[in-house]
Amino acid sequence: MKKILVCEDESAIRDFVVINLTRAGYDVVEADCGEMALQKYEEHGGDFDVAILDVMMPGIDGFQVCKELRNKNGSIGIIMLSAKTQEMDKVTGLMLGADDYVAKPFSPSELLARVDSLYRRVAIAQQKNENNFKEELKSGNFVLNLRNRALLKDGVMIELTQVEFQIMEYFFSNPGEPLDRIDILRHVWGDAYVGEDKIVDVNIRRLRMKVEDEPSNPKHIITVWGLGYRWDAGN
What we know:
The protein has 235 residues and is of the alpha/beta class. Helix content is 43%, strand content 22%. It has helices at residues 11-23, 34-43, 62-72, 87-95, 108-131, 162-173, 181-189, 198-211; strands spanning 3-7, 27-31, 50-54, 77-83, 100-104, 136-139, 142-145, 150-153, 156-158, 179-180, 221-224, 228-231. A 5-stranded parallel β-sheet has the order 2-1-3-4-5, sandwiched between helices. Strands 6-7-8-9 form a 4-stranded antiparallel β-sheet, with helices on one face. Strands 10-12-11 form a 3-stranded antiparallel β-sheet. α6 (162-173) crosses α7.
């Protein structure tokens, strides 16, 4: 069964989310604080497909929970809940490893659409790993291992989130080709994604911090002004 962890300290919002996800067929485990979320994660052996985390919570906030879950599990899908006015919450969450964010207040249909979309991406990635269609993709001194979802640069492993892995797989499959930001969005997040295309830029920024020697002067993930990005393996 599709398993999801919901961490929200406001009981009314948490109940609202849990009821709607349960009706949609998800097996929901709930937590009312960051500490409990991490405890529940361990109690269930990390067996979660998606986690929904509120940003503002007393004690361990959603950012810290996101960071710790991502360190423990590169494949879990993570959605952050933040107030609509807190633009930096979105960027911070994505930089810490979140896959998506939903602004409060939100409708049941919006939340379910985002959760379903993220769950499908996680499930497809898991299926690819199990079937192991191709072991790895090579590009210059980079190797993308499709079995363990790891990126190697000169033999050194670079940990990737699920979204980062899918972006790199798209780059490696289209070396040197300018890729439209919208095409990247559709390829990674799916046609049904209802969020902003800015999520692509934030993930690119995060990837540059991992793969570039000088993130502020990228040599591999090149901006194509007015369009999107291009992968250049370099020497």
